[in-house]
Amino acid sequence: MKWFFLTGSIIAIISVVTGWQTADWMLTFKISGIAFLVPMLGAGVFAGGFPGGGFGHEHAFRHESKEDRWQRGDWTKNLFLLALPNLIVLVILVGVAYMTTSSS
């Protein structure tokens, strides 16, 4: 579990350092945005948040075992932890951009 958060933190740090070195904060926004969206979409799939194919959530997970349900929950939590540091970077970037544009 901590490895997912650590990996997300490393990606977030790399994106911030890359944006700082190139003076292109849009690059940081793109890297962190992708590193946030992809795990969150995966977490949504594992959580059953996107039912499709004409079946509801109850049909898709009705016949799974308790162990499968726990494993699916663990993957959902781990993918959320992978995305969390990048969400923090995105919130800070948007906040700084808002503060600098609204004060001028």
TrEMBL record:
Keywords: Membrane, Transmembrane, Transmembrane helix. InterPro entries: DUF5316. The chain crosses the membrane at residues 35-57, 78-99. The keyword Transmembrane applies. This is Uncharacterized protein. The lineage of its organism: Bacteria, Bacillati, Bacillota, Bacilli, Bacillales.
